[in-house]
Amino acid sequence: MSPLVATLWLVNVTLDTGGQLAFKAAAGDPRAGDGLARWRYMASRPWLWLGLLAYALHLLTWIAFLSLVELSQGMLLASINIVAIMLGGRVLFREALTPLRIAGILLVSTGVAIVGASG
Amino acid sequence: MNARTWRFYLCGFALLLVFDTIVQVSFKLTGAHAFPPQASGAWVSRIIGQPWIYVALIGYVGNFFTWMSLLKHAPIGPAFAASHLDVVSVMLASAWLFHDALTPMRLLGAGVIMMGITCLAFAESRTHGGQDKLAQAHGPLGAPADD
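^ inputs. structure came back:
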């Protein structure tokens, strides 16, 4: 993996994870209320907008990444996003890491490492 | 679960995979047509100036509505696993369309990743609030997509 591809991959994972966590922060705010008021509240706070910005940037870095690697390899490497989001959820929202989740995280990470190491 | 419900799920998840695959193939074609990638307005112009990006966005919309229909009733664990089968469907599509090499290491990596996703699917089935997690973890772009 060239330095440019590795950088794009890391930026891509960061933006996807950051976007997802920002959406979670927006949607999970208990003060948001219901219905239209909920959307108004979310729009008045930064999280929803940060999530959308991260997504827009992620779209561009994903296209740039895919133009430098084979699609099959890119998809496999992007599976690490699942792991990053789960770990982010653990750190920021104290979501449980059960033994089965840890096993899943280790397996996905190992699979991504195999694909990454094989070029 | 009766035969009709099974048929609904099978068709729904097959449709989801088709949309996912179309989206990712279109992103790949977008990148190829806008090559080389640059941190510049010229590159973004090349992206929005050719049709594949719009095919990808239409695929996203189809994907989103299919996903939301399925999530209404589908059991969370199997739904999580099935939604990530796109890794396999996109890999096969790119071998066919772009002649990507399915090397033994790549196939091994894909197999281990799918085993991990199966573990996570079982974990979601057993955890309350799995639906939130599922929605978060789905696809490379978060919305029924990478992702």
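Chain B touches chain A through 56 residues (CB under 8 Å). The CA atoms of residues 55 and 66 of chain B lie 16 Å apart.
thumbs up if we can close this ticket
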